Amino acid sequence: MKQPAVSVIIPVHNSAQYLSECLGNVVHQTLENIEIILIDDASTDDSRRILEDCEKQFPEKVLLIELDKNMGAGGARNFGIDAANGAYIGFVDSDDQIQPDMYEKLYCRALEEDYDIVDAGFYHEENDRAIIFTTDEMCGRLDDKKRSALIASGGYLCTKIIRRELFETPSGRLHQRGKAILEDSEMLNYMICNAKTMGNVKEILYIYRNRNASASKLSDLDRYFDEAFSAIEANYELLHGLPGYEGVRVAVEYEMLQLYSYAINSCIKYVMTGRSPVVAEQRMKDLITLRKKVIPSGIDNPYVSEKIPKADIDLMRRAEKDPRALLKAFSK
Q: Which has the closest alpha carbon to 134: 159, 107, 99, 105?
């Protein structure tokens, strides 16, 4: 059997409202030699029936994996990675959409220069913004400067295809953080650190809708703090032992400090909504202890001063000086 050019992995949990729309352009990709791996992550709505119908309709290209326990997006993707046979792997979120020629364009670009990773532009529906994170200056053979620029620029797994071999080490599995609100920043950074080459397609091929996350990010402050804290730990654990870490350390520390800022803000919002200042203070102290462990150089970072708003930098400084006083200033 011919190896698929690309394996597309789609984790699904209770996405019935948007799922048919998402799957339409995936199963009708212009790239014919494609493998589509659908992971039903213990859905309780009509998602499983929709996925089963899709597999029956396109048995030659669709594989459905059904999980009895909800593993979250990262955990579900791991099952897809284990089952993938493609030369490259791509990911789609179940409430987003892709252009019907996305994977043909990404794969053809990968073949042109034998790239390890190829990225495309995306449209952020909620913000009405079109973004291309990977510029021409970041492409080609990667060195510390390009890797640092790629890490600091951000981006998403879902806009890329990644050579499957990059996933084939024990540390090359997506970190299981439950129902991830935040992106899998640590896995994307890991791939960038280990890839030798990077390419881009300067077209908007992915439509990021963020329908579920926008409503839940601030309403579930417990979960949001845990996600940010866990992502800081995961970035450090996954990356700091790599041979080339020192060359990208400043960029990775910026990524962790950005998460640090998110977590501090979640503690502030926690007390602003009338919840326990004692809980918020302990969280902030735990967070500061973690920061001192993984970023001993502190928050003075060139990317921080360039990319994080001054008001948020001031909040980080105030938190480190006196977390109780900071929270008291915002308490209801």
A: 159
